[in-house]
Design brief:
It contains three helices and eight strands. It is α+β, with helices and mostly antiparallel strands. The protein has one domain: Alpha-Beta Complex (Nucleoside Triphosphate Pyrophosphohydrolase).
């Protein structure tokens, strides 16, 4: 019997404000401990990626978000054998003050400095491209 799971579908939100983006650091006891990521999470059965992202942002940050356009998508194969399909979305608006409910810490980071942060391996190419300005026109509405 093969216990290998299928690919994991993950929706991540790009919450921006004044050339900064909100990122979260995974908790010490979590898988990939203390690595940084964009808020969001696993798409559950019966959800669209956008619905999952709204739910995850409510759970992780205690905000109500409006999800906009898909900015990018990636497939990343981790050395452990797991495959993650990452969908990055612009968050066009949100209400509430982001609260650190599911992370070690959260931080508003300047886009240009993102490559200096210890992100999850699956996010690294996207982080470099975002910092270089490649997706800025998509985020202007955020």
């Amino acid at each position: 019997m093969n216990s290998k799971r299928g690919p994991l579908l993950v929706a991540a939100g790009l919450i921006t404000h004044e050339n900064r983006v909100l990122v979260g650091q995974r908790r010490r006891g979590d898988r990939h401990a203390l690595k940084w990521e964009f808020p969001g999470g696993k798409v559950e059965r019966g959800e669209t990626p956008q619905q999952a992202l709204v739910r995850e942002l409510r759970e992780e940050l205690n905000i109500e978000a409006t999800v906009g356009a898909e900015v990018a998508r990636y497939v990343h194969n981790y050395p452990s054998g797991s495959t993650v399909h990452l969908l990055f979305y612009a968050v066009t608006t949100f209400s509430g003050e982001p609260a650190c409910r599911a992370f070690e810490q959260i931080s508003w980071e300047v886009l240009d400095t993102l490559p200096d942060i210890d992100f999850l391996d699956g996010d690294l190419d996207f982080v470099r491209r975002l910092a270089s300005g490649e997706f800025r026109s998509t985020l202007k509405s955020a």
